[in-house]
Specification:
Elements (H helix, E strand, L loop, with lengths): L1 E4 L15 E4 L11 E2 L8 H15 L16 H5 L6 H7 L8 H48 L7 H13 L14 H7 L9 E4 L2 H9 L5 E2 L5 E6 H4 L15 E6 L2
Parallel strand pairs: 1-2, 1-4, 2-3, 4-7
Antiparallel strand pairs: 5-6, 6-7
Helix pairs in contact: 1-4, 4-5, 4-6
Length: 260
């Protein structure tokens, strides 16, 4: 299986078309998209997942800067939950505190639910990116249409000036604003091994991520198909210096291919 990384929405894929490439679906919607891979046996059902994400968004609304909602990308999952008025940590843990199965089995289900929650957050974050891009394009198209209607010269177009002004005032950014909020891909790659097959191969077309891995000392070798590959524990691709505790998925090995 070839799985796109780091984004889970095809609209955000920046590489060339690749036969067999699929996108991970963490299970927020009732039905999986035809181009997506949704693993069976996800610990959080769509209804529960949506409830948790809603609570998370409500919690995040206290931040003035939307980019602060992504601060969990630099932390562990436990760090993210601390201080949350919605007690998201408790909601996740309580689902498996039912006495069913051994302690180790309950801990495993709890760890998988936390890993899924990280992926759900990232998926929702991508949705927000797409919403902002669509809003920006819609505003620009609206002004361009008005310019054409009233016969304004291109040099005096309101579209570019209004869009630039809106970005300056709102700080929502977008491609033209040069204000990109980075997806916390380090945490995404540590969570994915909990749900993908052992023979899955992550395909990355982002040169900036590749540069980070190279600087971190991960060695890639070129294959016969021209792709650069490396195999290492997920926590290494997450750019940690040592194995994280309480994150069994991050200890599993992954193979990553670089599509240049």
């Amino acid at each position: 299986m070839l799985l796109a990384f780091p984004y889970m929405h095809p609209e955000l894929w920046s590489g060339d078309d690749l036969d067999g490439l699929t996108f991970f679906d963490p299970g927020l919607t009732d039905e999986a998209d035809h181009h997506a891979f949704r693993p069976e046996g996800l610990p959080l059902d769509p209804k529960t997942a949506r409830s948790l994400i809603k609570d998370c968004i409500n919690f995040g609304e206290q931040f003035k800067d939307p980019s602060e909602m992504a601060y969990f990308g630099a932390l562990t999952s436990d760090d993210f939950y601390e201080g949350s008025s919605m007690s998201i940590q408790a909601q996740l843990t309580r689902q498996f505190d039912d006495g069913q199965g051994s302690k180790a089995e309950r801990e495993e289900r709890d760890a998988r639910s936390k890993a899924q929650f990280v992926l759900l957050l990232a998926w929702s974050f991508e949705e927000r990116i797409l919403e902002l891009v669509g809003l920006e394009e819609g505003i620009k198209d609206h002004w361009d249409s008005m310019d054409r209607t009233i016969g304004v010269d291109e040099e005096d177009s309101l579209g570019e000036r209004e869009t630039a002004l809106g970005e300056t005032l709102s700080h929502t950014g977008g491609a033209s604003a040069g204000q990109e909020i980075q997806l916390p891909w380090q945490r995404v790659i540590e969570a994915l091994p909990a749900f993908i097959p052992g023979d899955a191969e992550l395909v990355c077309a982002d040169p900036e991520i590749f540069e980070v891995w190279e600087e971190f000392g991960i060695a890639f070798e070129e294959g016969e198909d021209g792709l650069l590959r490396a195999t290492a524990p997920a926590w290494r691709f997450g750019c940690r210096r040592s194995e994280p505790k309480g994150m069994p998925a991050a200890l599993k090995e992954l193979t990553v291919a670089i599509l240049k």
